[in-house]
Specification:
about 80 residues; alpha+beta; 3-stranded antiparallel beta sheet; two-stranded antiparallel sheet; 7 strands; about 25% helix
Length: about 80
């Protein structure tokens, strides 16, 4: 499976499944926000709960599944 990782203005292809990447990297800094995306939590600018989307610091928007929205709300409360 091909995954794309974005760093700055460049994109890198990674040939691992998201399940593999999630097991290896998801911790307090990385989070799987939907079926097809893992996001670095330090790059999140804000969370729009009504539209269920994350806006990154570079203004890129990502959809958040309902199952992951509660987790994001909980960790954002812990970090206030």
């Amino acid at each position: 499976m091909e995954c794309i990782t974005v760093k700055g203005d460049s994109a890198i292809k990674v040939y691992h499944s998201l399940i593999y990447l999630e097991k290896k990297y998801c911790n307090k800094f990385f989070f799987r926000c939907n079926k097809s995306t893992i996001v670095n939590l330090t790059h999140i600018n804000y969370l729009e709960t009504k539209t269920r989307k994350i806006v990154l610091k570079n203004n890129f928007e990502l959809k958040v599944s309902e199952s992951f929205l509660k987790y994001l709300r909980d960790i954002s409360k812990d970090n206030i």
